[in-house]
Amino acid sequence: MMRKIILSNEEIKGICKRIGKELTIKFQDAPQPPIFVGVLKGGVPFLMDLVNEVDVPLVIDFIQIESWSGLESTGKVTLKRDLDSDITNRDVVIVEDVIDSGLSMQFLIDFLKKKNPRSITVTTLLDKKCARKIPVQIDYAGTEVGNEFLMGYGLDYYDLFRNTNYVFVPEMTEVHQWDEILKRK
Ligand code: IMP
Ligand code: MG
To answer: Which mutation among 37, 46, 62, 67 tests ligand 1's pocket best, with the greatest number of atoms within 8 A of CB?
Structure first.
């Protein structure tokens, strides 16, 4: 099996160090600890590796939206789980695995803005720029990628296979095997 690796774990670690350093500088003198919001479920591995590289007091929270099924974006975004924290007047850092069409991130930004945060910073590991349907705010991106279906390190196929420490393009033969597993679930 030959998986095309898009980001190795070493590269991901390098990205976390770089963005972590920039966020440390950005929030050094923040009036209150920033709230890092991981976008469930895909954003979790990146959030956890990223916060290890941020050297300021911070709060971790999660939000869950639904926007994607299988190989294609559905274009419809809904909220599944809201934040625990009150973000009024707080600095919020959204941490996402990938920004594709931009619809999910725009939904999130609009939703969180209604809660009157002090600021919103958008961080994504992967930027699928060429797939953008609407322009969206991105402050920090790990790397730009092409319009390919990616998996691993949080990215899933019907909720499966988020558990690799690298990002890859699956082979179609692999995907067919997974379809068999999914039928048995
Ligand atoms: P958007 O709303 O089209 O920007 O989609 C963003 C969401 O789609 C992300 O949070 C991912 O969950 C999912 N997604 C986008 N591209 C991929 C991919 O290549 N593999 C797996 N999930 C993806
Ligand atoms: Mg996601």
So the answer is: 67
Reported as a single tens digit per residue, the pLDDT across 126-160 is: 999 999 999 999 999 999 999 999 999 999 988 88
**DSSP per-residue string spanning 148-175:** ---BBTTB-BTTB----SSEEEPPHHHH
Please tell me if the CB atom of residue 42 comes closer than 6 angstroms to any atom of ligand 1: yes
pLDDT tens digits, one per residue of 23-75? 999 999 999 999 999 999 999 999 999 999 999 999 999 999 987 655 565 67
In the prediction, which pLDDT does 67 show? 76
* Look-up of token digits 């809904």: 78
Q: Tell me, in angstroms, the distance from the centre of ligand 1 to residue 68's CA.
A: 6
| Neighbour count for residue 118 (Cβ, 10 Å) | 15
Q: Model's pTM, two decimal places?
A: 0.94
Peptide bond just before 185 cis, omega within 30 deg:
no
Pairs from 109-118 (Cβ < 8 Å, separation ≥ 24) = 109/136, 109/137, 111/79, 112/37, 112/63, 112/87, 115/83, 115/86, 115/87, 115/88, 116/87, 116/88, 116/89, 117/87, 117/88, 117/89, 117/90, 117/91, 117/92, 118/31, 118/89, 118/90, 118/91, 118/92
